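Narrative of activities, Objective 1.

The group set out to show that a structural description can be obtained from nothing but a protein's sequence at a throughput compatible with the screening campaign. Below is one input-output pair from the validation batch, recorded exactly as produced.
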Amino acid sequence: MGQQLSEAELEIMKIIWENPKEVTLFPYIMDELETRGRPCQKNTLIVLLSRLMNKGFLSARKIGRRNEYSTLISEKDYQTAQTRNFLDKIYEGSVRGLVSNLITGDLLTDEEYEELKTLLEKGKAEGKGIRES
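Output recorded for this entry:
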Protein backbone atom coordinates (compact mmCIF):
# COMPACT_ATOMS: atom_id res chain seq x y z
CA MET A 1 0.00 0.00 0.00
CA GLY A 2 2.20 2.78 -1.27
CA GLN A 3 -0.76 5.04 -2.06
CA GLN A 4 -0.51 8.53 -0.68
CA LEU A 5 -3.60 10.34 0.51
CA SER A 6 -4.16 14.03 -0.03
CA GLU A 7 -4.70 16.12 3.09
CA ALA A 8 -8.46 16.21 2.44
CA GLU A 9 -8.63 12.44 1.83
CA LEU A 10 -6.67 11.77 5.02
CA GLU A 11 -9.03 14.01 7.00
CA ILE A 12 -11.98 11.97 5.73
CA MET A 13 -10.25 8.68 6.53
CA LYS A 14 -9.49 9.88 10.07
CA ILE A 15 -13.18 10.66 10.55
CA ILE A 16 -14.14 7.20 9.34
CA TRP A 17 -11.39 5.44 11.33
CA GLU A 18 -12.45 7.27 14.50
CA ASN A 19 -16.14 6.50 14.03
CA PRO A 20 -17.03 3.84 16.62
CA LYS A 21 -19.69 2.41 14.29
CA GLU A 22 -18.86 -0.26 11.73
CA VAL A 23 -20.20 1.80 8.84
CA THR A 24 -20.11 5.55 8.28
CA LEU A 25 -22.86 7.54 6.62
CA PHE A 26 -22.37 10.56 4.35
CA PRO A 27 -24.11 13.06 6.71
CA TYR A 28 -21.83 11.95 9.57
CA ILE A 29 -18.75 12.78 7.48
CA MET A 30 -20.22 16.17 6.47
CA ASP A 31 -21.01 17.01 10.12
CA GLU A 32 -17.57 15.93 11.34
CA LEU A 33 -15.79 17.99 8.69
CA GLU A 34 -17.85 21.00 9.77
CA THR A 35 -17.08 20.34 13.45
CA ARG A 36 -13.34 20.16 12.65
CA GLY A 37 -13.48 23.49 10.86
CA ARG A 38 -13.00 21.83 7.46
CA PRO A 39 -16.44 22.29 5.81
CA CYS A 40 -16.80 20.63 2.43
CA GLN A 41 -19.28 21.00 -0.41
CA LYS A 42 -21.45 17.93 -0.99
CA ASN A 43 -20.13 17.37 -4.54
CA THR A 44 -16.51 17.73 -3.39
CA LEU A 45 -17.05 15.14 -0.68
CA ILE A 46 -18.63 12.77 -3.21
CA VAL A 47 -15.53 13.10 -5.42
CA LEU A 48 -13.16 12.56 -2.48
CA LEU A 49 -15.06 9.48 -1.30
CA SER A 50 -15.00 8.12 -4.86
CA ARG A 51 -11.21 8.61 -4.99
CA LEU A 52 -10.82 6.80 -1.68
CA MET A 53 -12.83 3.88 -3.06
CA ASN A 54 -10.73 3.84 -6.26
CA LYS A 55 -7.54 3.83 -4.16
CA GLY A 56 -8.85 0.83 -2.21
CA PHE A 57 -9.29 2.57 1.15
CA LEU A 58 -13.10 2.42 1.31
CA SER A 59 -15.97 0.33 0.14
CA ALA A 60 -19.53 1.59 -0.18
CA ARG A 61 -22.81 -0.24 0.05
CA LYS A 62 -25.93 1.46 -1.23
CA ILE A 63 -28.87 1.10 1.14
CA GLY A 64 -31.88 2.78 -0.43
CA ARG A 65 -30.77 6.32 -1.22
CA ARG A 66 -27.76 6.36 1.08
CA ASN A 67 -24.26 4.92 0.99
CA GLU A 68 -22.68 3.16 3.93
CA TYR A 69 -18.89 3.46 3.87
CA SER A 70 -16.55 0.90 5.41
CA THR A 71 -12.77 0.96 5.65
CA LEU A 72 -10.71 -1.60 3.77
CA ILE A 73 -7.41 -0.49 5.34
CA SER A 74 -6.91 0.12 9.04
CA GLU A 75 -5.37 3.33 10.31
CA LYS A 76 -2.47 1.34 11.80
CA ASP A 77 -1.73 -0.37 8.46
CA TYR A 78 -1.75 3.01 6.70
CA GLN A 79 0.55 4.54 9.32
CA THR A 80 2.95 1.60 9.07
CA ALA A 81 3.09 1.82 5.27
CA GLN A 82 3.61 5.59 5.34
CA THR A 83 6.31 5.27 8.01
CA ARG A 84 8.07 2.66 5.86
CA ASN A 85 7.85 4.99 2.83
CA PHE A 86 9.22 7.87 4.91
CA LEU A 87 12.09 5.74 6.23
CA ASP A 88 12.99 4.58 2.72
CA LYS A 89 12.77 8.06 1.21
CA ILE A 90 14.50 10.10 3.92
CA TYR A 91 16.71 7.64 5.80
CA GLU A 92 17.33 4.96 3.13
CA GLY A 93 15.40 2.51 5.31
CA SER A 94 17.53 3.12 8.41
CA VAL A 95 15.52 3.11 11.63
CA ARG A 96 18.75 3.96 13.46
CA GLY A 97 19.11 7.10 11.32
CA LEU A 98 15.59 8.22 12.22
CA VAL A 99 15.97 7.56 15.94
CA SER A 100 19.41 9.17 16.00
CA ASN A 101 17.99 12.28 14.35
CA LEU A 102 15.10 12.39 16.83
CA ILE A 103 17.61 12.34 19.70
CA THR A 104 20.44 14.51 18.34
CA GLY A 105 18.06 16.93 16.64
CA ASP A 106 16.52 17.65 20.03
CA LEU A 107 13.12 16.61 18.68
CA LEU A 108 12.08 14.55 21.71
CA THR A 109 11.00 15.81 25.09
CA ASP A 110 12.62 14.10 28.09
CA GLU A 111 9.35 12.25 28.66
CA GLU A 112 9.19 11.05 25.02
CA TYR A 113 12.83 9.93 25.22
CA GLU A 114 12.07 7.85 28.31
CA GLU A 115 8.96 6.36 26.67
CA LEU A 116 10.98 5.45 23.57
CA LYS A 117 13.68 3.87 25.74
CA THR A 118 11.02 1.83 27.57
CA LEU A 119 9.46 0.70 24.27
CA LEU A 120 12.85 -0.37 22.92
CA GLU A 121 13.67 -2.33 26.08
CA LYS A 122 10.24 -3.97 26.05
CA GLY A 123 10.67 -4.93 22.38
CA LYS A 124 14.12 -6.33 23.06
CA ALA A 125 12.82 -8.36 26.02
CA GLU A 126 10.06 -9.78 23.81
CA GLY A 127 12.57 -10.69 21.11
CA LYS A 128 11.34 -7.95 18.79
CA GLY A 129 14.38 -5.69 18.86
CA ILE A 130 14.57 -2.99 16.20
CA ARG A 131 16.36 -4.36 13.19
CA GLU A 132 18.72 -2.22 11.17
CA SER A 133 17.82 -2.16 7.49
